[in-house]
Amino acid sequence: MPTYTYPGVYIQEIPSGVHTITGVATSIAAFVGWAAQGPTNQATLVQSWSDFANQFGGLDSRSYLGYAVNQFFANGGQQAYIIRLVSDGSGGNTAAATAQVEITDITFDSSASPSTVTITSGAVGGLTLSAASPGNWGNNYVIQIQPRSDDYTRFSLSVVYVDPTTSTQTIVETFPNLSVSSTDSQARYVVNVVNEQSRLVTAAMGTPALTLHNNPSVPTQPTPSTPASIGLNHTSTGNDGTPLTPSTSPTTPGPFETALNSNPSASGGGIHFLDTVSIFNLLCVPGEIVRSTISDLQAYCFKERAFLLVDSESTDTFSSLQNGPVGITGTNAINSAFYFPWINQFDPQLNSTRAFPPCGFVAGLYAATDTSRGVWKAPAGIDASLSGESGLAVQLTDAQNGTLNIQAINCLRNFPVYGDVVWGARTLRGNDQVGSEWKYVPIRRVALFLESSLYDGTQWVVFEPNDETLWGQIRMNIGAFMQGLFLQGAFQGTSPQQAYFVKCDAENNPQSSIDQGIVNILVGFAPLFPAEFVVIQIQQIAGQLQA
What's the pTM value of the predicted model, to 2 decimals? Predict the structure, then answer.
């Protein structure tokens, strides 16, 4: 309560009690697979294809990962987390190794003309430079060192790419005016600078530390020296290890599935690197067909309020699928959808066309549909046409499509005017015989969107006094959020009363709940069902009978 001392007008600002709820993102994808380079101890965010290529090496014909990410961005995707799997070291698989060089001494001879630089490597201690991630890629880089001609206690360090085909050298990173002292007054300690600024190498100083020497026999300023070079793989050679690909048997997990569930680079690795990500919505493991693994991924997505895109087998046909997917339609299947067939695309790595799993294409269409129409619009139909492909591996008729559709298989179809499109929008619990309320992809994804948005948007409620005032604020804030969605066309109904409700009052918050510190909020919505079957009735008008 303010103190009033002088006669006059006092202005007070009164909190409105409004806590704006913002809808969460709906199409942040996560891709898991093997790559020849890139971080192996985290889920790494990329926001474009070039971003992925820079960090993970781009396309590699040994893995579906790069192709799926490329297809995602080409079809409308904007953000994706990447989990790079490496061998778990079991079953005769070779783990990927990291290129590394140990530099123990740098000698700058200013008595020579021009000045010369000598790098000594291999003894104990010194400066260890390692490729930022394991893989053969690190063998294509060299380290260049050049001390300052006027102060040999400082030097520049450059990371140089050497084209393995032409031997052309390109400087990609340079760090000038470095020091070997951890207490350097200019904050140019080599370890700190490299680890903070480089995306290609990491640095560590051993004992004894790196030493710098100079031959000061020439008192005048010497001619600038040519940098000395040493291969990043001088001490340890990098290699890719055993490329991991999904098992080709739907009943037998392999090394890929082992790495997917437990990556040796960190405890709780593999798919669980996503545990530390604030939000992801779509999960893609390109080419994964092992039923037990898919079931585990479905359970993980259910826990994380995410949605799994499941690929059919590359050898699947109408005949093999006409009885529906096997072993992956359990309770958690509401957070997943199945797509068939595979999609043909030209592979520049092999200079030929081959088939790819559909999840990357479809994830991009999910993102594009969310952006243009909203998460409540089914990611299917004539607007959901594929980009960057050259046909479907299997062509289906209307009758075949009808047989598969009621089995919860979302088909990709080709139509003369619209090209190749996604022509199904059912979850893996969408079989007509199941009768699930989560039969359709957009309805389930709207529910996940609401759950995540309301979870984030009601954190302010925690520890507030649990009474009518709080309940009124909750109804107002959530109601405003739901009204905004209603005006965008997210719900069924012509009025807010028909479209949604928010209940938080004494009826669903009795004293017993209040005594336990619980506030109950009930939110309901009327979902928009996609027009899956369009029925047009034609009737002939009979001619008028003459009297």
Answer: 0.92
**Residue in the structure block whose two tokens are 């985290």:** 42
DSSP β-ladder status, 336-340 and 410-415: parallel
Query: How far is the C-alpha of 216 from the C-alpha of 111, rounded, in Å?
Result: 7
Which of 403, 407, 437, 483 has the alpha carbon at shortest distance from 334? 437
Phi, psi torsion values for 474, nearest 5 degrees: -60, -45
- The C-alpha atoms of residue 298 and residue 206 are separated, in whole angstroms, by 46
Q: Quote the tokens at residue 409.
A: 């298989």
Beta-carbon contacts of 303 under 8 Å, excluding residues fewer than 6 positions away, are none
DSSP E strands, 163-287: 169-178, 201-205, 211-215, 228-231, 282-284
Phi/psi region, residue 135 (left: phi>0; alpha: psi -120 to 50; beta: rest), is left
Is the CB of residue 335 less than 8 Å from the CB of residue 307?
A: yes
Cβ proximity of 456 and 449 under 8 Å: no
Q: How many CB atoms lie within 10 A of CB 184?
A: 17
**pLDDT tens, position by position, 262-305:** 654 445 689 999 999 999 999 999 999 999 999 999 999 999 99
Could you read off the pLDDT of 87-143 as tens digits, one per residue? 765 656 788 899 999 999 988 887 777 788 889 997 788 999 999 999 999 999 999
Residue corresponding to tokens 């889920």? 43
| 3-state SS track over 50-118 | HHHHHHHCCCCCCCCHHHHHHHHHHCCCCCEEEEEECCCCCCCCCCCECCEEEEEEEEEECCCCCCEEE
Cα distance between residue 313 and residue 315, in whole Å: 5
Domains in the chain: ranges and CATH: 29-90+243-443 (3.40.50.11780), 100-231 (no CATH), 464-547 (no CATH)
- Name residues whose C-beta falls within 8 Å of residue 488's C-beta, 6 or more positions apart in sequence: 374
For 335, residues 6+ apart whose C-beta sits below 8 A from its C-beta are 298, 301, 302, 305, 306, 307, 308, 427, 444, 448
Nearest-Å Rg of the Cα atoms of the chain is: 31
* Of 503, 516, 514, 446, the residue nearest 474 (C-alpha): 503
How many Å separate Cα 186 from the centre of its chain?
38
| CB-based contact 178:154 (threshold 8 Å) | yes
- Number of other CB atoms surrounding residue 356 within 10 Å: 23
Given a cut of 90, whether residue 391 has pLDDT beyond it is: yes
Of 137, 276, 124, whose CA–CA distance to 199 is shortest? 137
User: Positive or negative CA dihedral for 344, 335, 399, 326?
Assistant: positive
CA angle 56, 62, 68 (to 5 degrees): 60
